[in-house]
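Hi P.,

Sorry for the delay on this. The queue was packed all week, but I finally got your sequence through. Input first:
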Amino acid sequence: MVLQKYTFAVIATDVAIFTTQDGELKVLLIGMKKSPYEGFFALPGGLVGGDESIDDAAGRHLFDKAGVRGVFLEQLSAFGEPDRDPFGRVVSVAYYALVPPDAHRLKTTKQYKGVSWFSVQRLPNLAYDHKHILEAAVARLRGKLAYSNIARNLLSREFTLGEMQSMYEIILGEKLDKRNFRKKMIGSGLLTETKHMQKGRANRPARLYTFKKKKMVFI
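Then the structure:
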């Protein structure tokens, strides 16, 4: 099969969108039908239209190809190796985001085989250079945990420090010292202690916390 290549360089977007589910960090992938990547999976994305911003294009493709909309997206980096796309010279501006696992009804178009969450530890074959994009996105996400409130996108409005620590451990892939974690989070200035306690658990009731700010903030 002879590929019809783009005549000039074009711009695309790709989105690495994560969740925590069943004790694992997972990424949203769509199944490919198009040769030469039939049977592979890819991050949701596509070309930027001539009359839209890169941010708008990322949001449009994420909804059209995965059914996810209205989420906070942050630019990750540009990926522009000359041979990254067999269809021609395509420069991709990649994004990443976090969402609760059941916050969206996943769907895709007939152009793809399906859309689903995959563990970042057990990935299928990825199309294009999406393995490199995903690795960069995971590294950025892990780094952001240390100095921002990005975790707000995965937790309930009110949560215990134990729930927060579990989520951090899933993303970081390592166990954290409980005492040091509590001290760091309470002293970060990101959280507010509520008057509520978690009830209905076999253990002693735990204090519930909430984030001071809904939007992204840094410390």
